Amino acid sequence: VYLDEIGVLPTAKESREFLADRSPDKRAKLIDRLLKRDEYADFWALKWSDLLRIKSEYPVRVWPKAVAIYYKWLHDSLAQNKPYNQLVTELLTANGSDFRNPAVNYYRAMQDRAPQTIGETTALVFMGARVGCAHCHSHPTESWGVKDDLALAAFFSRIKYKTTLEWKEEIVYADVRATMRDPRSRVIVAPKFLTGPAPEVAKEEDPRARFAQWLTAPENPWFARNVVNRIWYWLMGRGIVHEPDDMRSTNPPENPELLDYLARELVTHNFDLQHIYRLILNSRTYQTTSVPNQWNAWDSHHFSHYPIHRLTAEQMLDAISQTTETYEKFWSIIPEPYSNWPMGTRAEQISDGNTTCSFLDLFGRPGRDTPFESERSSEASLRQELYLLNSEQLAGKLSSSPSIARLLKANMKDPDLVDEIYLMTLSRFPSADEKQKLVAYLTKNSTARPTAVQDVVWAVFNTKEFLFNH
Predict the structure, then answer these.
(1) Nearest 5°: CA angle at 313, between 310 and 319?
(2) DSSP codes, 212-263
């Protein structure tokens, strides 16, 4: 629950408290408490920063000052639990300076600023519809064609950009004289909702408002279903519709009733995202064991047991840093002036996708070049295994760890020391067999106790239980 809701491990003290009382009432109170923590907005801002492509430079060019402003707006919106339909409407209808109206950076964080690119990106992020296939030919499995793609782009055809005398400031505005033309016939294309009617748009009107109104309407078949499916994917490791940004009739949901129920709950609760988190985290499905039995060992789609999934790159680095109480120094040299984050910043608090960190790159951090969920990788590799086994950086974290030094200074008995290590890393007590083996190892290496204790922590870091969310 901690890893899925706020992205960080519980402390040893918090683990003891929860293990002492795992009743449903205690679980519900814990979830409510987590929703109020600062880390809640940090973790979910990271998820949305990937989708909204918040980075300074190449191929997206938001630039450092706008990145900081855009990220803060997003973070604060999530911390305040701003209704999801309001958040999206603010993004889609934004005008003004990228320094003074953070939401306009949605239109700047594009690989190119062509209306078709904006329309296809918007459909992918907020509808889960991969319309990009219809950019130049008919979609291979859906009824979307080039005309549908152009009609969607027409909603964004009046967006224009201009610079100011302030370095990297840019104004996003609507030019009511602009039109969308078919690149082949040169005929003006009228805006038309994807799988919907064509609204009447006045000549002096910005059609984005019409699109935002249609998109966020309670009866829209895409909007609520897309975001609750993404949340299910983020919490469970697999979407009800999978991939989570491939919502189409030829890729039906695994459980249509469940998807419809969650979408209704979101709409009837005023697009309250935290309500959906509570529903899922308190559900029987989320609480099922990750250990399969003889009847469901084959199942990877139906959620008959909790799908084990690897920690994200940021979660893993933060878990190691939190356990050892050693922290990274994050910076970005793209572009000047360089960006620096204060010591103690957690990886999940980083706002800029251009931030330098070899660990995050190694463990699958996305480049934020596209809005596809699959850009973030959770695949294991030999290089990752070699890092966990042999890294001098990891060895340095262990040897300089204030938390390990504190355990050694406390002169705990070996069984109590092993208990504490397990609580701070795996959030549970060791089994009898685990405790016996580790106590024997510590006893055998009593003359080199600091190194032996570091070895125990290092061994736990290399377990699947630490690296994967169960």
Answers:
(1) 85
(2) HHHHTSTT-TTHHHHHHHHHHHHHHSS-SSSSTT--BTTB--SSHHHHHHHH
- Over residues 3-28, the pLDDT tens digits come to 999 999 999 999 999 999 989 999 99
Other CB atoms within 10 A of residue 212 CB: 20
Q: Which residues pair with 248 in a beta bridge?
A: 251
| Residue 386 burial class via C-beta count within 10 angstroms: exposed 0-12, middle 13-18, buried 19 and up | exposed
Per-residue pLDDT tens over the stretch 426-441:
999 999 999 999 999 9
How is 355-419 classified by DSSP, letter by letter? -B-HHHHHTT----SS--GGGS-----HHHHHHHHH-HHHHHHHHT-HHHHHHHHTT--HHHHHH
Q: What is the pLDDT averaged over residues 244-265?
A: 95
> According to the model, what pLDDT value does residue 40 have?
96
Q: For residues 417 and 407, give the distance between their C-alpha atoms in angstroms, rounded to a whole number.
A: 7
Least confident of 28-32, 278-282, 298-302: 298-302
**Predicted pLDDT of residue 141:** 77
Could you give the CA distance from residue 153 to residue 248 in angstroms, rounded to a whole number? 19
Q: What is the pTM of this model?
A: 0.95
Question: For residues 146 and 135, is the Cβ–Cβ distance under 8 A?
Answer: yes
Query: How far is the C-alpha of 47 from the C-alpha of 234, rounded, in Å?
Result: 9
Distance CA 37, CA 42 (A): 9
Cross-strand partners of 160:
173
